[in-house]
Design goal:
By secondary structure, the protein is mostly helical. The chain is built from 5 helices and no strands. The protein is elongated, with a radius of gyration of 22 Å.
């Protein structure tokens, strides 16, 4: 349970830092508005509970699509078609902005020699490169 809690805290901290970036903040607002709009429409058109409407909006835009809920009305089906085409683009923009933020943070950390415990051993890029070259050289001699 502790690793989950730690990861969740790191995620919340990162999200807070990312919200200070204007380009990320605009995508975040668009995602929240898109999910909210979808939730309201599904609640109104399909008559679903609020939580079911939000759940379906998230499951649809993340392309998971469990199939436990599906629009039954023609208006709901037509809205879903339009919602998917616009919403997936917005969600991909959000994910891309987040990825670019993490990549920038990782590169800045490497340039300062700060290890990233999530995906590297703590070595600087030069040390990792030296280790790889030594391992290749050792393999060729044996």
């Amino acid at each position: 349970m502790f690793p989950f809690f730690l990861t969740f805290i790191i995620y919340l901290r990162s999200l807070y830092k990312m919200l200070k970036q204007p380009e990320f903040r605009s995508f975040f607002v668009l995602v929240v508005l898109t999910l909210s709009f979808g939730t309201v429409v599904y609640h109104s058109v399909e008559g679903w509970r609020w939580i079911d409407s939000l759940y379906f909006s998230v499951i649809t835009l993340t392309t998971i699509g469990y199939g436990d809920l599906a629009p039954a009305t023609d208006a709901g089906k037509i809205f879903t078609i339009l919602y998917v085409f616009t919403g997936i683009g917005i969600l991909l923009g959000f994910i891309t902005a987040a990825g670019e933020y993490f990549k920038k943070q990782h590169e800045e950390g490497i340039s300062r020699g700060v290890p990233n415990f999530l995906w590297d051993s703590g070595d600087t890029l030069e040390e990792m490169e030296k280790d790889i070259l030594e391992n290749i050289k050792d393999d060729g001699e044996g």
